[in-house]
Amino acid sequence: MKRLILAALCCISLCISAQEETIGSFFKNMPDTLMPYLSHNNRLDMIDFMEAQMKAEVTNLMGGKSEMTSLTADSLSIRMNVMLQVDMKLTTPEQPSDSSRHVISLWRTYTLNGQLDERIHDVYTTDWHLLSSRVERSTLLRRDEKIRQDKK
Questions:
Q1: Kindly report the CA angle at 97 between 93 and 100, in degrees rounded to 5?
Q2: What is the mean pLDDT of residues 99-111?
Q3: What per-residue string of b and e applies to 69-102 under the rule 16 or more CB within 10 Å gives b?
Q4: Smallest Cα–Cα separation from 31: which of 91, 98, 119, 104?
Q5: Torsion angle, CA of 116/122/126/128, rounded to 10 degrees?
Q6: 3-state class of 150 per DSSP?
Q7: Rounded to a whole number, what is the largest CA-CA distance in the chain?
Q8: How far apart are CA 69 and CA 36, in angstroms?
Q9: Looking at residue 93, what is its pLDDT?
Q10: What per-residue confidence (pLDDT) applies to 21?
Q11: What is the per-residue DSSP string for 9-35?
Q12: CA 117, CA 137: separation in Å to the nearest integer?
């Protein structure tokens, strides 16, 4: 009996250690506050559709369509709507620590009339704690403001 229990525990520990950390597993467990367009079920459906090699389009919480366009072991891309593209990448941190073998880079790219308007790059731990954030704004808005000021 003891051998049976020991064998079962060894099998369970091997299965747990064999589970690979993929971007899909982190995406499934992402807090809803970081992806307000998609419910947890939407995210699960997208992963399932991609793994079944189907079109990974879901009706998002805003009533529109969102589509996962790419999924690999370490990255994914989602077209949330015509103005928002979300990309995620699982990478090794610049300064690795024992508590974090990987970090998650999350880019949100906003476009207006097909031109880049703003890009937000956040870096998270694998348990979704924010490490850094950077916003890149397009010069389009600044140029428009300058034109308005020049007209005055």
A1: 65
A2: 87
A3: eebeeebbbbbbeeeebbbbbbeeeeeeeeeeeb
A4: 104
A5: -110
A6: helix
A7: 88
A8: 18
A9: 74
A10: 85
A11: HHHHHHHHHH----HHHHHHT--GGG-
A12: 6
For CA atoms 20, 48, 44, 109, the dihedral sign is positive
pTM of the predicted protein model: 0.74
Tokens 């996962």 -> residue: 68
Please give the structure tokens belonging to residue 110. Answer: 């906003």
Give the residue carrying structure tokens 């597993």: 25
CA-to-CA separations, 11 to 4, 6, 14, 28, 140, in angstroms, rounded: 11, 9, 5, 25, 58
| pLDDT value at residue 20 | 64
pLDDT reported for residue 11: 45
d(CA 136, CA 78): 19
Q: Which tens digits make up the pLDDT trace of 123-151?
A: 999 999 999 999 887 655 555 555 555 55
Instruction: Please give the share of the chain, as a percent, with pLDDT higher than 70.
Output: 72
**How many helices (H) does the chain have, and how many strands (E)?**
4, 7
